[in-house]
Model the fold of this input.
Amino acid sequence: MMGSENNYLQESSREQMETLILNEDDGINEDVSTSNSYSNYRSAMTTLSSSSSSSEHPLLTPPSIATTTAVSDPLLFPSHDSLPESPSYADVIISPLEDSPTISFSDGAGGSGEIHEKLGVSPRSQLEGSEYLRITVSDPKKEVESSNSIVPGGNSYVTYLITTNTNIQEYGGLDFRVRRRFRDVVTLADHMSEGYRGYFVPLRPDKSVMESQVMQKQEFVEQRRVALEKYLRRLAMHPVIKKSDELKEFLTVEGRMPLSARTDGVSMVLDGVVRLPKQLLGESRSVIDSQGVVEPAKGRRRDLLRLFKELRQTVVHDWGGSRSPVEEEDKEFLEKKEKLHELERQLTNASKQAESLVKAQQDIGETMGEMGLAFIKLTKFENEQAILNTQRVRAGVMKNVATAAVKASRLYRALNAQTVKHLDTLHDYMGLILAVHSAFSDRSSALLRVQTLASELSSLHSRAAKHETASSKTFGGDNSSNHKLEKLKEAIRVAEEAKSCSIRDYERIKENNRSEIKRLDSERQADFVNMLKGFVINQVAYTERIGNEWAKVVEDTSRYAKENV
Amino acid sequence: MNALQRSGSDSMAQSPRSPSSQAPYITVSVTDPAKMGNGVQAYISYKVITKTNFPEYQGPEKIVIRRYSDFVWLRDRLFEKYKGIFIPPLPEKSTVEKFRFSAEFIEMRRQALDVFVNRIASHHELQQSEDLRTFLLADEQTMERSRSQETGIFKKKPTDLMQIFKDVQSKVSDVVLGKEKPVEESNPEYEKQKNYIFQLEDHLAEAQKHAYRLVKRHRELGQSLSDFGKAVKLLGSCEGNSLGKAFSELGAKSEMLSIKLQREAHHLLMNFEEPLKDYVRAVQSIKATIAERANAFRHHCELGETIKFKEIDLNKLRLTRSEKLAEAEREYEQLKADGEESKRKFETIVKLMNEEIARFQEQKTIDMGVAFHEFAKGQALLAKSIAEAWRSLLPKLEACSSS
Done:
């Protein structure tokens, strides 16, 4: 995506740039962790958001726009010389900082929460009422699986420290710390997707295919840490999921993971219909006798067949719905679906262009820096070798230009780091759309189930009817045939219950879809406005500063203006 | 025009522009590039307009048509005749781009050729050159004839020059190969200057390389802003009302800024990168002069050797009272005269070079000062206008979030 080009700066010149002692306030050594390899946009983003709280600080002299995390820190208030004078900007910058809480922002949409706050863009999370659930993922540690390892040294895996701070009553406490591994998160995610069908459940981070080989790499672990944090925070942001028991257990129960692994896809689907979680029903454990559907040997086989048929039909999502036999009659729903499809298309396109914008910004900053360095070297050279005074004069001018170029380069880099954060909203929403896909397919699965159960029921009925007609012809009745009829009637009863259960399920999911769509629409408005504002304010702030640097040089070289020469 | 040619007949008060009272001037402009010919043989011709009051030019204004190879001819002739003087550099031949004939390429070349001729015209020695007059006045056929004559005897092909460079630089390899160590001046100051020139070229070339890349980066940023703007607009069409409008305006701004960036890229190319490239070329031209000086020195030394041997021979002949003595004596005198001549030539080169270096350094300070000023100006304006453009969106975005 971002191309596999190598670092633009050679190692030596990058070091040079970073140890460069320039005039005035510079002489700052930059933290190399804001590395230049944007070969993978995602890794770039995770690197940046992880370093946001520490390494960008030295990059910027005051004002430290979006660097430190403590809001009440007076250093945060931009100093005068670089704060643009325009009143609207000043208002936007200063005011929201006054009513923000003092704790660092680790909730909401990840890193963007910080930035938005400082730039006067209040993240949605601040407005979401008083219940909060703040999660941090940190301190990755390698651990070894000691039990049942045939091979000495065993399996090693990484655990992460998950700290939670909350005021949700059901948690029965304020702060929690647990250690979890990635596998536990997968389990949690499976529970989520099962228990919250119809909701836009955030998707968990990907498993890595080469997990064991990649495991050792610090970068991978860091990437994963960030991804996990983002994922858990997204769960915590969801108005319904944040109240989930499974999530609570995941976050609070120390020691072994309290949730059971769900590795069997088939059983998942089975359980899904058969053991409806109480959240969906809104009541305690269901009345349905799960055994009723599963028990009879024939019944079981029938179920499995039905299952496979359904699974096959639902495996391919496609927005067009041309291959799906499921009829969705809800016009409003179809309209929304189409709109969301369009949104997805445009988001994909916009995110692609955003990536190339970020790359272009990065490139121009780098080249500017490299050029500045080259001029610095030339300046040194001229000064060392100068025989005539005119050489020193020229070297002096050149140095000013070079210094400005290096400063501009740093400003571009900082600008870009922020741009990435703001435009990250696009990626967030793309991820969300995947969750929407999933929720919509929950719906069509549920509808499919209703229909298949209905057709089964009607076939059972017709079989029963046939049986009755047949046995009524046989005088006196047949024990075995009566027994069969009894069994059929029993099956019908169970099937009817299953059908009405599935209808309730379907209705529930429809309702979830509907409320989620509404939530998505309104939250999206707010998030997009914030994104645009953040992006724009960021651009204004940095390009103004860049302009100021160059304006100084224009002054210094004014004697060379064409009119004067 | 005729009024100006009347010399002295009018009183000075009446015609202050009469030649006798006016300081001598000559300015040249290279303009109106036009594509001539077809296919492989296509070339660009330029109009060269000379405005001068030099008596030899017989007229205040002259116009001729010239092509790139005519400029090359002029440069080569001057290089031959004015050893020691740094001949102004020419833009590169660039055979590949020539076929594309992009407007930008043509404009850059035209500008460089213009600067080239004017530098010659403003150099106190070079401006007296007869070859310059030929270049500025002769009709095209005469010009072509002169040009083709060059390929015979006098024209130094680039490969010859390269050989001279190699001679200057490869003393070590000569020793390794067993060749005699070439004779060189043992002048520490001059050594220092030579080193300076060689290293300067490296530094400048690197800076120029980055400057060129910077131009490209501006273009790329412009392109991505344009694409981004379009995408944002489309995204906005998914949203309603005020948010949709905000997206659409942002997209429009982005597209507008893209244009500004393309303009700045061009400005950078013409007013910053090109002067840097010109600086590099100038240094390369100095290297050619350095090679000429080395040649002259070597020639002088060789003659010196030859004279010594001749002297020995002569003495032998004197002792034996050979009838070859007279001739030998004539030859000896000739050689001594040549020796004087070569010494004079060498010393002229040395003297000229010293003057030229000082002039060069002064000139470059000004040239680079101008280039840096233009660069900074362009960047400052660009940054400010970007900031303004984005800032203008803020009120609308504020309105969005409050609604």
About this structure: Strands of chain B lie at 26-36, 43-52, 61-67.
